[in-house]
Design a protein that fits this description.
379 residues; two-stranded antiparallel ribbon; binds flavin-adenine dinucleotide
């Protein structure tokens, strides 16, 4: 008996669907990627592709009975190298709606999820605040019960899709606990400020909630379920950041390899110069290791394995740190040509950077990973 150590064949068709979308946006991906504003052409192509259905369960317009983390990874690995903007649009449909799919009321699910699956409604998840980044338990945004209503007050910052999302999942203090609430983007009392201009453009902004009034049914899941739902979301989507990083790293290596095979110095192609060959070989090995870990983490998330969150954290650190090294080496192998603004490798180099910070900075995740090694009582 032989064992295929590969993804099941059905994922090859999905990868091709995502690659087809990547090819369709190629003519304007560079321009869209330089803008901090939502690019309607990307939204239209994403909607036409039908791929957002991967991010939603089948009862509400999705493809599989439950969101398949492996499928999410397959799509992101193909989209990210084509366009960080497109990848973020796709990923946020899942990140913003996953808690609703898991624990939302029937009303919430039927109101939002079919529109998320069709990319008619953009989703967002608002956790970060001016004084709370990695330490989310320090958030100050709160909900208070006033009769039949909840009143939401506070500020969120660096929120992807702020100002363009149809709804936000907002993490807030709820008495002594934390809850997630579903907040439609057009409610009175929400103010949006456009975000800063990052080293690679991203559609984001800050949100202020000035006593936004919500029905008591706006909680996603019960009171106090906020962190449980955020962690469930991160288990799936942290692994998918790793897949996006693998996509970036592979694209950067492909660029460097094409250059190294054709650029002649000292009478030989660069790929035959020992140190260049070593850089490329290390990149290839590290990408393969990161890819294996990423898809195993996604498969464990699909099985709801108890180790899935730690595995997703390991995959994210391994793959995003790999993407950093590989894009840096790719620039190095390409010499001056790798530095040209607007070139593919220069874009990949810049776009790899944020991946090591959002959805858990590498240092914070190393802490999570190390805690899984602690013996009871630390002894
Ligand atoms: C492009 C982009 C999009 C984003 N989109 C969203 C979004 O949609 N929704 C949302 O809620 N947030 C979003 N964020 C915010 C993101 O989640 C935070 O940036 C992230 O959680 C880190 O928080 P911070 O930037 O405040 O860094 P801090 O928490 O201030 O940490 C700074 C650095 O300190 C180190 N550090 C911190 N704590 C520890 C620790 N315990 N152990 C070791 N080292 C530590 C790490 O190196 C870390 O990078 C986005 C950020 C970016 C860059």
């Amino acid at each position: 008996m032989t064992t295929e150590f590969e993804l099941p064949a059905r994922y090859a068709a999905l990868a091709e669907e995502a690659a087809e979308l990547a090819r369709r946006v190629a003519p304007f991906a560079g321009e869209a990627g330089d803008s901090t504003a939502l690019d309607p052409r990307l939204v239209a192509e994403l909607a036409a592709s039908g791929l957002c259905a991967v991010a939603v369960p089948a009862p509400w317009g999705g493809r599989e009975d439950e969101v398949d983390p492996v499928a999410v990874c397959v799509v992101r690995e193909a989209l990210m190298p084509a366009s960080g903007h497109l990848d973020a649009l796709f990923a946020l449909q899942g990140i913003g709606s996953y808690a609703v799919a898991l624990a939302g009321t029937d009303e919430q699910r039927s109101a939002w999820l079919p529109r998320v699956a069709a990319a008619e409604a953009l989703a967002a998840l608002a956790l970060t605040e001016p004084n709370a980044g990695s330490d989310l338990r320090a958030i100050e945004t709160r909900i208070e019960e006033h009769g039949d209503e909840l009143v939401l007050t506070g500020e969120k910052s660096f929120i992807s899709n702020a100002g363009v999302a149809a709804f936000y999942g907002v993490l807030a203090r709820d008495g002594d606990t934390y809850s997630l609430v579903l907040v439609p983007g057009d409610l009175p009392g929400i103010r949006v400020r456009r975000g800063g201009d990052l080293i690679s453009a991203h559609v984001l902004g800050d949100l202020a909630f000035d006593g936004v009034r919500l029905p008591a049914s706006a909680r996603i899941g019960g009171p106090g379920q906020g962190f449980e739902l955020v962690l469930a979301t991160l288990t799936v989507f942290r692994a998918s950041v790793a897949a996006a990083a693998v996509g970036i790293a592979q694209a950067a290596l492909d660029e460097a390899v094409a250059h190294a095979n054709t650029r002649i110095q000292f009478g030989r192609p660069l790929i035959r110069q020992g140190q260049v060959a070593a850089l490329l070989a290390d990149s290839l090995m590290e990408i393969e290791m990161a890819r294996l870990l990423t898809y195993r983490a996604a498969a464990r998330a699909a099985r709801r394995d108890p180790r899935a969150l730690v595995e997703a954290s390991m995959a994210k650190v391994a793959a995003t740190e790999t993407a950093a090294r590989v894009t840096d080496r790719a620039v190095q192998v390409m010499g001056r040509f790798g530095l040209v603004r607007g070139s593919k490798v220069e874009r990949l180099y810049r776009e790899s950077r944020a991946l090591r910070i959002y959805e858990g900075a590498s240092e914070v995740l190393r802490g999570t990973i190390a805690r899984s090694l602690e013996t009871k009582g630390g002894g």
